[in-house]
Amino acid sequence: MDREWVVEESVAIKAEPAQVYAAISDLRRMREWSEETFALWVRGRSVETGTRFVGFNRIGWRVWFTNCQVSAAVPGEVFAFRVATFGMPVALWGYRIEGIGDGSTRLTEYWEDLRRDNRAAGVVSLLGKVFTGVAAEKRASVNRAGMRATLDRFKAALESA
Description:
The protein is α+β, with helices and mostly antiparallel strands. The protein contains four helices and seven strands; from the N terminus they run βααββββββαα. Strand 3 (52-59) and strand 4 (62-74) form a beta hairpin.
């Protein structure tokens, strides 16, 4: 089987696009939704394109951090950030927000593996395996399951509010 470089999952949420964007772009709440993130340190008060933050993650007993920078922040449309480790690109994570009528929104979470076509790809893939316990070739399937859980949590939280 070929390695997957891009993964995305979607969910329909009974909430307006502005509400969905406000929640997903509140980085300090990411630990409520994410399967792996347990803490975040955000530089500054506002979150906009260019905002930097550090994500603290875990799978089982393994704990690691990533340096991130918001790459897109368009209210009601898209929120995305790039992930790096030791200055080397790892991934692009994002959320597309689309109003689908009747006060509902389709939220799509996507991930793109950036560990390719550069000199650091092998090093970053090795570091990923050491720190997370997940080989680069298996990261897409792990992320797909995590996305499903994240989107389900997000939907439940917004629809119960």
